[in-house]
Amino acid sequence: MKALIIGAGIGGLSTAAALKQVGIDCEVFEAVEEIKPVGAAISIWPNGVKCLSRLGMGDIPRDFGGQMRYMAYQDYQRGETMTRFSLAPLVERVGERPCPVARACLQQQMLEHWGHDAVQFGKRVERVEQHEDGVTAWFADGSQASGDFLIAADGSRSVIRPAVLGYSPERRYAGYVNWNGLVAIDESIAPADQWTTWVGEGKRVSLMPVADGRFYFFFDVPLPAGLEQDRTSARADLTRYFAGWAPQVQHLIAAIDTQTINRIEIHDVEPFGRLVNGRIALLGDAAHNTTPDIGQGGCAAMEDAVVLGNAFSAQNTIEATLRDYEAQRCDRVRDLVLKARKRCDITHGKDMALTQAWYEELRQESGERIIAGLCDTIQGGPLG
């Protein structure tokens, strides 16, 4: 049996590893000539760490994940602590720690695990067609490939998605812009073992530790889409948007490298009622494009891969196996997309009365409520 996997990102490479474990040959095709990370880092929560371990890549979060032991929210103007608590109860309850990882490290290590030479780069898919005993994909370079089934892990702008859904869904602008990057850890800004977030005015500034003495940083600002801004104006833009914020935030803005900062307008896509059509299945961002507000986008793709591999281990027909995958994932990924959307709206001031109420709740927060919410999300995954 042979699978065609379109996309060599987190979802595609996780899928290749999962299918290899159950004896399925895979050909992996990637549109670009060289994979460049979209975003500086990724939050791999314990459900994602468990999935990577199941897929034989547990060393990646262990070796490249930051030591994030505490979580804190800070007042945006004075910089005072609104709440701070240990993440040890989370680790104890779910059996694994969260591991923020630089995307470049994660993707490079996943490529090395699968085999960089085993990925066919520069293969931009143009169309796919399924027939009685398989699927064929045609690429922009004039080549084609055939297999018994096809996994579309080709991202949020998936070319293959319409072949499954029968239509091309619109991406929904979430209402805010995110700047992100990596910066050397400076404990005068925030502790090296803490996820620190300043909140106010419907905006957010956040730091997470990753490996090699670096923080992953991101700034969120509610803005209209389509502004003429890029990394060349990033420092001036952030200085303007965060005028009057705490001294630590000003120090962070001064420390960023504007040559490497990313600026992203955040979108999601309405959850789908199906993920499979015959021998073609959607996976990762192609299946559930979410905002990053609960840090589950990459983890959900890893979960997809684990579920898909488990489904194929049952040795049913291909069509039945893919339907089983769909049945196990549809509700889960819909829940994640909608949870992230709800959190996005509260964090970014869609209704400022609700956002102000959240700020007041944070000042009374012991950590129990936030950890309970994290546990609920994490333990909803296939590995508990």
From TrEMBL:
Domain of life according to the entry: Bacteria
One Pfam family here: FAD_binding_3
GO biological process per UniProt: purine nucleobase metabolic process; urate catabolic process
Cofactor(s) essential for the protein: FAD
Keyword NAD annotated: yes
Catalyzed reaction equations: urate + NADH + O2 + H(+) = 5-hydroxyisourate + NAD(+) + H2O
Pathways involved: Purine metabolism; urate degradation
Enzyme class: oxidoreductase
Assigned keywords, A-Z: FAD, Flavoprotein, Monooxygenase, NAD, Oxidoreductase, Purine metabolism
EC id: 1.14.13.113
FAD-binding domain ranges (all copies): 2-337
Gene Ontology MF terms in the entry: FAD binding; FAD-dependent urate hydroxylase activity; urate oxidase activity
UniProt entry tagged with the keyword Flavoprotein: yes
NCBIfam families xrefs: urate_HpxO
Family to which the UniProt record says this protein belongs: Belongs to the FAD-dependent urate hydroxylase family.
Protein name: FAD-dependent urate hydroxylase
Gene designation: hpxO
